[in-house]
Amino acid sequence: MNLSVKISSVTFKNPVTVASGTFGHAEKYHNLEEVKKLGAIVPKTVTLYPQVGNPPVRIWETPCGMINAIGIENPGIDAFIQTKLPNFKKIGVPLIVSILGHTPEQFVEIVEKLNTQEDVAALELNLSCPNLKHKTLVAQDPQATQELVRKVKAVSKFPVIAKLSPNVTDISEIAMAAEAGGADAVSLINTLSAMAIDTKTRKSRIGNFTGGLSGPAIRPVAVAMVHKVYSSVKIPIIGMGGIANANDALEFIIAGATMVATGTINFVNPRASLEVLEGIVSYMKEQKITDIHQLIGSLQK
Amino acid sequence: MDQIQNIYRVVSNEKLCPQFWRLCFDAPELVKKVQPGQFVHIRTSEGLEPFFRRPFSVYRAQRYVEIFYEPKGPGTRLLASKQKGDPLDVLGPLGTPFTLPPAEITQVVMIAGGIGVAPMLILSDILKKKKYDLVLIYGGRSRGHVYPMKEFKDNGVKVHIATDDGSVGVKGRVSVLFDKVKFNSSNTFIYTCGPNPMMKAVQEFALKNQIKGQVACEEIMACALGACLGCSIETKNGYKTVCYDGPAFDIGEVIFHK
User: Which of A25, A187, B238, B245 could form a cystine bridge with A163, CB 3.0-4.6 A?
Assistant: First the structure.
């Protein structure tokens, strides 16, 4: 059975990974023998300078999901390279580093710092975090997306993945712009803008006022967007948004995703990504499918 | 490495007083590992609703692991429906435990509000072996919120109770009981857990009187593994996660807003 997939020149032994921001302290809490089975791992987004994150309250439970407004709390790229990267490399699974610059120049500076490193499989550009003080996201503007991806591609020695936002009228337009800028893949979807209000105090439940909705509640939205993007671009898609089990992941693959990521469900079930992988394998056995590529984009009319 | 996630069996699940329940589950390896102030993260639903696991302080770890809870939301109500023999999906033990008192300490005062009494029993189980003068100051809303404090008394803990309506003990907040105890900055150590306004009052009292101690905080949690950074609170050393850096913090470290 062939489960391996490629993004640009990088081969991943299987299509299952984790969404940025949902997988931390791997060395401490996860059974590393199990983590080694994943196709790739994606640490939390890192910025040029350290960020302390947003004021509490940062999360709120919603029907089949959650709102978060963490605000990319992270130690900055220098500390990440010094202290976090060696631990992630030790796991021995291809590493996709998620990065965010507040300007195109910051993106370039982060990439230049990462260029000094080996053993990074690809970079994921977070163009779509809804919890920072930007008026519009890069991923809400096709021209800005194309230009930013082009600038990063010009300097990066690693393949580049653009992470897209669902908070747009037509996500395929943004995906096409990323492709035109030279992106090697797109990943989608990031969280949906969301809010919850405490009716007693008439205040927002979230310290940052609004946040991003994730979890199984958003899955049908994400599947539709992957389907739409698949019909618009030739580059691979990493599909995510509410995947809780193998069947959910298969929906994304059939809709056109080359890779799939578990995200918020990791908080509820730390083994979710491995269960997804195991479930994909048993589905392929049952369906007598020998190559994952037979499934990608195999949606029947 | 040991598994952090396991399925255990419920041994008992009973109401201790009108408001509070106790659930025991059979987890010998957890009993060995868990320290006072640590917690377990339980998946109360087999489906996706409610979505998050629920964190519970370990109340006691002797033959079984015991948790003490109030069925009031969708997760804790589901927990109250668990029967003997039911499987329980548990992550744990998690979090930074209480530090034990420094050498010069002879008196330990535990100050708890409501469900915040949970980590104090396992703490007294450990401390009673070391001949401290143990005191519990407990505040609850009303009679239904105060269960018989037999386990604490069996551990040799002197118990003082205050209720909002005066139906048990003294009427008022825990602070009305502070003059019942001889606090001494050189040999008293405080542990506190409860609603934030109560912990803020205890913190102010401790700092004013130069008494050392620890607080155990509670927040809404998603992962409880230090990954999502969702349960962060403000401290004098920046944002810290309750699940990973806490729940136990130095009494002066946390910045309480209300």
Answer: A187
Residues B49, A264: C-beta atoms closer than 8 Å:
no
Q: Do A266 and B227 touch (CB under 8 A)?
A: yes
Q: Please give the average per-residue pLDDT across A182-208, as a whole number.
A: 97
Which residue of chain B comes nearest to A26, CA vs CA?
B227
pLDDT of residue B178: 93
Angle, vertex CA B192, rays to CA B74 and CA B187, nearest 5: 165
Identify the pLDDT of residue B143.
87
A247 lies within 8 A of chain B by CB? no
Look at B52 and A61 and tell me if their CB atoms are within 8 Å: yes
Q: How far is B240 from chain A (nearest CA, A)?
A: 10
Cα separation, A258 vs A236, whole angstroms: 6
Token couple for B220: 């809404």
In A, which residues are within 8 Å of B53 by CB distance?
A: 267-268
Q: What is the mean pLDDT of chain B?
A: 95
| pLDDT confidence of residue A28 | 59
Q: Is the pLDDT of residue B216 over 60?
A: yes
Q: Which residue of B has its CA nearest to A211?
A: B230
* For range A85-106, the mean pLDDT: 93
ipTM: 0.93
The mean of the pLDDT values for chain A is 95
Q: Which of B3, B5, B51 sits opposite A66 (nearest CB)?
A: B51
Facing A64 at nearest CB: one of B48, B223, B227: B48
Active site residues of A: 129
| Mean pLDDT, range B76-101, rounded to an integer | 97
Tokens 């991943």 identify what position? A12
The pLDDT, as a whole number, for residue B1 is 43
- By Cβ distance, the residue of A24, A57, A271 closest to B5 is A271
pTM, rounded to two decimals? 0.95
Residue A59: its chain B contacts at CB < 8 A?
220, 222, 228, 230-231
